[in-house]
From TrEMBL:
Pfam families, alphabetized: Peripla_BP_4 (PF13407)
Keyword Nuclease: no
The protein, known as: Ribose transport system substrate-binding protein
GO cellular component, one term: cell envelope
A GO MF label: carbohydrate binding
Family indicated by similarity: Belongs to the bacterial solute-binding protein 2 family.
Keyword vocabulary terms for this entry: Signal
Originating species: Nocardioides kongjuensis
Primary site of residence: other
Residue ranges of every copy of the Periplasmic binding protein domain listed in the record: 70-313
Entry-linked SUPFAM superfamilies: Periplasmic binding protein-like I (SSF53822)
Subcellular location per the Swiss-Prot or TrEMBL entry: Cell envelope
């Protein structure tokens, strides 16, 4: 499938957007950096991008991963001398609206911004805005390598590799033998790629794959549904030794299902997209592994792409790989730092 997110029913778009983000990694559901107050932005007026205005058309507010991307992007752009405003794809009723992405882009064009970065909720829906930016001669960038969008540059998420890293690491914890499977989610491009990687990693690690991830999906993107799906998996495969899940909430649900089935000491569980809650689960031994995206670095990588274009480099559909994250297990979990401790979160304005 070529589209990153498809929303046949508008009410389901929010859940899809959160699934696409893996539900975050900071453990904070807002942009405030948890209990820490937001700092004022510090823009280097002597930087290479001094005076430049960058508009970030984000997905939805209140998502930890999206906050991390925005914070990493803003910090790096400010360091280069640019100012950044962050707006969302919401309508006047504060509800998610696929058409709002185009409206935000056109508002940026009217304001004369120097570049636009987007987190598309739907590739087809945002295409008119992308085309408008191209006609206006304004560089436009997307998080995710989306097919069918003609943009200046794209930041590609290493989904298949993070799945592979998770699968191999979990197979090693499981002893490199026995049955294993993957609990998948909503069939977005990035989740599908991560699941492919996890299957490969488990097999390369010596595990015998059972079940079918296509039929083992947490389509509600929450812990209760993950618990239900995991219960079915454990009933079908009572000898299962390893289970990879696609996100944080699914890890919590799978842990509950394993406990209910009396398998907590027999099956190891790992998540391909963890957050602070999962780190606590690794610490207490209920979760074997948590993969940390580090969305801050994703945002910084996007800022580097923007800086290249605004410094005169001619880019067209330039694809840059986002940096890999890190696998945390009981052996290195003490080294984990929440994103809000890795970088000071700042106030990001909604206008210039």
């Amino acid at each position: 499938m070529k589209r990153f997110l498809t929303a046949p029913v508008l009410a389901g778009v929010t859940a899809l957007a959160l699934a696409a983000c893996g539900t975050g990694s900071t453990g904070s559901a807002d942009a405030s950096g948890g209990d820490k107050p937001l700092a004022e932005a510090s823009v280097d007026t002597n930087g290479a991008l001094a005076g430049k205005k960058i508009l970030y058309v984000d997905g939805v507010p209140g998502n930890a991963l999206l906050d991390g991307l925005a914070q990493g992007l803003a910090a790096e752009l400010n360091k280069q001398g640019a100012t950044m405003a962050r707006v969302f794809q919401l309508n006047a009723q504060n509800q998610i609206d696929l058409a709002a992405g185009n409206q935000r882009i056109n508002e940026g064009i009217a304001q004369g911004v120097d570049a636009i970065v987007t987190f598309p909720l739907d590739a087809n829906a945002i295409r008119p805005g992308v085309e408008a930016a191209n006609e206006a001669g304004i560089p436009i960038f997307t998080f995710q390598d989306l097919g069918g969008l003609d943009v200046t540059g794209k930041l590609k998420f290493p989904d298949e590799q993070r799945g592979d890293d998770t699968g191999k690491a979990l197979a090693e914890i499981a002893g490199g033998q026995g049955e294993a499977t993957v609990l998948s989610g909503i069939p977005t491009d990035n989740i599908e790629a991560a699941v492919r990687g996890a299957v490969k990693g488990l097999e390369d690690g010596g595990m015998k794959l059972v079940g079918d991830p296509d039929n083992q999906r947490n389509l509600k993107d929450d812990a209760p549904e993950a618990q239900r799906v995991a219960q079915t998996i454990f009933q079908k495969f009572p000898d299962l030794k390893a289970l990879v899940v696609y996100n944080s909430a699914s890890a919590t649900g799978a842990i509950a299902a394993a406990r209910q089935a009396g398998l907590a000491d027999k099956v190891v569980i790992g998540t391909m997209a963890g957050e602070d809650t999962n780190i606590a689960q690794v610490e207490d031994g209920t979760l074997a592994l948590s993969y940390d995206f580090n969305g801050l670095d994703y945002g910084k990588a996007m800022a580097g792409l923007v800086e290249r274009a605004l410094s005169g480099e001619q880019l067209h559909n330039e694809v840059v790989e986002a940096p890999l994250g890190e696998v945390y297990t009981k052996d290195n979990v003490a080294d984990y730092k929440p994103w809000t401790e890795r970088q000071t979160y700042i106030k990001i304005p909604s206008g210039f």
